[in-house]
Amino acid sequence: MTTRPYIGCTLGKIPYPDKGVLIHNVMKGGPASKAGVMAKDVIIALDDCPISDSDRFLMMISLQDIGGKVRLKVRRGGKREVECVLRVGEWEKKKEKILVVKDEQNPLEGTTLGEMSPTLNSRLGLDAALSGVVVIRVARGSTAEGLFQPKDHILQVGEQKIASLEDLTKAIEPVVKSKTPTVVKIRVARGEVVIEFRLSVGSPRAKL
């Protein structure tokens, strides 16, 4: 397996013109959690080097030695600055989680979906910091063709926010199994735009 430095958190963007990297989620028991990093912290420096965005931060982390220590300066609660000493962990590259949707009763029929990771995001040309479920490809002639596109980031199905393929499967299952006509709401991020589809089961039509 391929290994690389690992800090145990997912990252998000903060609104322009602010600089830094938002901590979206902290993995329990991971290096960031043990160092006292918290969700909603904003990373503003690593070893006294200013951090302007996630690309710079991830590049700097990738150069660290596994087992070595780094000092993260974070802004907490909008104002207070806190320094956390983090020991860099080791991440093992695992097989990508992929789902090919073939059920014709599924409004996502014809899509190949994947759980976002730095490796998959890099292959698709997406921000390495993004997490969740992304459309990898759409089959020609499928229910999904003309609606969904590669790189669409699936945010929500019905009232369920989607963070993993497991979330997506659980959210879509009642729709697929329904014996009566059903309309499901699916929200996706396409670049900087959020699109909401309202799809009838088995129908390629959508209302935006």
TrEMBL record:
Cited InterPro entries: PDZ (IPR001478), PDZ_sf (IPR036034)
PROSITE patterns from the UniProt entry: PDZ
Coiled coil start-end: none
What is this protein called in UniProt? PDZ domain-containing protein
Question: What is the protein's species of origin?
Answer: Lotharella globosa
Q: By its UniProt entry, which Pfam families does this protein fall under? A: PDZ_2
Instruction: State the similarity comment.
Output: Belongs to the peptidase S1C family.
The cross-references to SMART domains, in alphabetical order and at most eight, read: PDZ (SM00228)
Q: Please, which domain of life does this record's source organism belong to?
A: Eukaryota
Chain ranges of the PDZ domain: 20-78
